[in-house]
């Protein structure tokens, strides 16, 4: 399958891919229905996401024949499962395409035990303000205070936005002395450093999210992760 990996760089190492999800409207509908149906299938049941809204994770795409044979409710919900499989496949394909292109273009030093997990789905509620007009405060996905700990780490963040029919909700970066605000459009895939000192090093890429004034913001989070090995020190 051919993917259009045209992008714009809104700041060094922050890429926005615009053409990987032309079917984002249909995918947004499937994502919303997955919450409304409240079925623990391909996509898990939606639960509270702290104060921000709701979130869900992908259980995985099973062998469909075995899945239908071993789940009593699967046959009557077949259409829902097929839609959810399509959603997960499209998200996974587009995220891998964006991450792969980003890694190549920026010569990212990928650790040997790096991997891309299943995507994680989220929805921001309107009106959430945790302070200074932000739904989510500045942070890095990589835990800066745990840089010396062994275990799972974040290297590259890949966030997909499936709708833009809301007000507010900009993603805001704080890097060095720079503040960069960007309002995602439907279908955007935003790729940027998670904060790991492996790439790009020097300055962490803090990011936060402005309060959504009205409407619901749908997003999908994915990452390039790696396992940090124990060190003698």
Rg on CA atoms, Å:
18 Å
Number of E-type strands: 14
Summarize the main sheet: 8 strands, antiparallel
Please, what is the average pLDDT? 91
**Count the helices. How many?**
3
What coarse outline follows from CA principal-axis ratios? globular
Q: How do the strands line up in the largest sheet? A: 1-2-11-7-14-5-4-3
Q: Which strand-content bin applies to the residues?
A: 25-35%
Core attributes:
233 residues; 8-stranded antiparallel sheet; 4-stranded antiparallel sheet
Task: Tell me what the structure shows.
It is a single chain. The protein has 233 residues and is an alpha+beta fold. Helix 1 crosses helix 3. The strands form 3 sheets. An 8-stranded antiparallel sheet has the order 1-2-11-7-14-5-4-3, covered by helices on one side. A 4-stranded antiparallel sheet has the order 6-12-9-10, with no helix packed on it. The termini are far apart. The model has no long low-confidence stretch (mean pLDDT 91). It has 3 helices and 14 strands.
């Amino acid at each position: 399958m051919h993917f259009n990996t045209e992008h714009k760089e809104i700041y060094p190492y922050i890429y926005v891919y615009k053409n990987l999800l032309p079917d984002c409207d249909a995918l947004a509908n499937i994502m919303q229905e997955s919450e409304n149906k409240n079925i623990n299938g391909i996509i898990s049941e939606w639960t509270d996401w702290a104060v921000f809204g709701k979130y869900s994770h992908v259980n995985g795409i099973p062998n469909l024949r075995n899945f239908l044979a071993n789940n009593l409710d699967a046959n009557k919900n077949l259409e829902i499962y097929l839609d959810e499989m399509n959603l997960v496949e499209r998200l996974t394909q587009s995220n891998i395409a964006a991450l792969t292109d980003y890694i190549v273009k920026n010569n990212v030093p990928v650790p040997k035990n790096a991997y891309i997990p299943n995507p994680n789905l989220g929805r921001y509620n309107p009106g959430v303000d945790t302070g200074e007009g932000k739904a989510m405060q500045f942070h890095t996905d990589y835990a800066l205070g745990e840089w010396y700990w062994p275990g799972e780490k974040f290297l590259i963040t890949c966030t997909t936005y499936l709708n833009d029919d809301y007000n507010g909700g900009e993603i805001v970066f704080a890097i060095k002395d720079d503040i960069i605000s960007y309002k995602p459009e439907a279908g955007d895939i935003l790729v940027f450093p998670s904060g790991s000192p492996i790439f790009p090093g020097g300055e962490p890429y803090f990011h936060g999210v402005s309060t959504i004034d009205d409407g619901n913001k749908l997003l999908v989070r994915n990452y390039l992760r790696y396992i940090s090995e124990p060190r003698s020190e």
